[in-house]
Amino acid sequence: MDLPHHSVTQTPIYSELEAVADATLLVDNHAHPLSKAAPSPLWSILSEATTTPSYPHPACGTLAYSRAIRDISGLLANEMDEPFTSQPAPMTLTPSNSASPPSPHTPTPIPHSETTASDDEEHSLEGPSPADRAIEQQRATIGVTRLATRCFGAAGIAAVLVDDGLNMPEQMSLNEMKSLGIPLVRRVVRVETEAESVLKELVTENKDGVWRRVARPTSPDKKPRTTIRATMFRQRLHQRLSSLPENVAAFKSIAAYRSGLGIDITCPDEVLDEVLRETISSASVNLNSTESFRLTNKVIIDCVVHVAFQTAKQRHIPVQFHCGLGDIDERLEQANPLLLKPLMDMVPDVKLVLLHASWPYVREAAYLTAVYPNCFLDFGLAIPTLSVRGMFRALDAAMEIAPVTKLLYSSDAHTVPDAYFLAARWGRRVVAAAVAANVQSGDLTVSEGKAAVRRILAENAAGLYRLPVQAS
User: Fold this and answer.
1) If exposure means fewest CB atoms within 10 Å of the residue's CB, which of 178, 189, 226, 322 is most exposed?
2) Is 341 a domain residue?
3) How is residue 55 annotated by DSSP?
4) Residue 183 has pLDDT above 70, yes or no
């Protein structure tokens, strides 16, 4: 039977752990850049659904959207009537019995959302209400820079690892994001995007047309013609990944989107070579233009992951994997982290991070962290896009078997700064609640619970990625 969230948050144990969470600066182990454009609507960051003119956006009917509207309303209360300050009023989720003095690192808090929205201001589940649109207008009037300063000031972030492979319009650079109030920003490199660039470069540079030739029989004095393309592709991709700057903290694979997580790194180069030739022939227009080129062939994607692991081992960095929920073009059953088990058996010396709580495959992912020393689990995207009870249950389920030392905070925030704030706000609350439940059940002492909160929110990621941060 699931432990009700509210019964945990009304306890003195929760209040103590909440205070620890609020005093811990977050290490966000997976996020995305902001856009310099006017802030997108809040519903756009809370759902992967597509929009059509015939229907309101599905996110508008979700519990996460109802909660987010109130949270952002509270964050921006009095913003338009008073001079801008990054020091809003204190935040309380439940009455706190803790008498501990605030840490000098405590993130700037905000009022709890229940104090900022009345019943007549509630939004319509059928779409944005006038009150919702007023909040969206306020966000647009403030602008992305001022909104970011407000959100980051309230979020309390020590470091963010940014996957910049989305290539969104007017995407901010890592330095631009750092200037908005994030002390440390490191890069996460999407390996499939790098592979697409490598393939275009090789075809462009090729002088003798080897990329489009049909395979020839092997001769005693020459390298088998059947592996030339495969060898060139592997070598160039390895060279590209190896030469990336030192600010790269991790590689990331989106194989779940492209061909699924059932990755086989034992495919012979002869097969890869022929697949490359066929891919070049079918994509020649894109490869010879500035148009985007998207690799989806499983043989090539599996090769890319193999090279990424080889290079990650040399660079001593982890490889992150998109797992579980995602965009509508994903086949969810192919994003089950259990499909990675054969790969994990073959690469015990490279650390893997399963992203997004692998939701709805949370327990499957937690099991992998329990049996593979090199496997870690983050819970971004699940927080803040699930309901409060859903977020609590996801982390609570992971903690049934996952080592506390293997759980990582992230926001998976993108495009707008509100996403960073919402994830930080509820990440702290949910971690405190899930750990409190396990203290209450006798699995942890209060002291161990406090250490677990700090580990999950910051220390585990700081150690995994070797980040020079002080989180508390």
Assistant:
1) 178
2) yes
3) B
4) yes
- Per-residue confidence (pLDDT) for residue 117, from 0 to 100: 44
Spatial separation of the C-alpha atoms in residues 366 and 393, rounded to whole Å: 13
For residues 441, 445, 450, 454, the Cα torsion angle rounded to the nearest 10 degrees is -80
Please give the pLDDT value at position 81: 46
Residue 273 contacts residue 227 (beta carbons within 8 Å): yes
DSSP for 178-226, please give it: HTTT-SEEEEEEEHHHHHHHHHHHHHHH-SS-GGGSPP----TTS--GG
Mean pLDDT of all residues in the chain?
A: 85
- Rounded Cα–Cα distance for residues 147 and 110 (Å): 14
Query: Which pTM was predicted?
Result: 0.86
- 9, two tokens: 């948050």
Q: Kindly state whether residue 441 falls inside one of the protein's structural domains.
A: yes
Residue 205 lies inside a defined structural domain of this protein: yes
Q: Given this model, what pLDDT does residue 87 score?
A: 34
Within-domain flag for 225: yes
What is the Cβ-side half-sphere exposure of residue 77, based on CA atoms within 13 angstroms? Answer: 19
- CATH number, domain of 406, equals 3.20.20.140
Q: Can you say whether residue 201 is alpha, beta or left, with left for phi > 0 and alpha for psi between -120 and 50 degrees?
A: alpha
Whether residue 308 has pLDDT greater than 80: yes
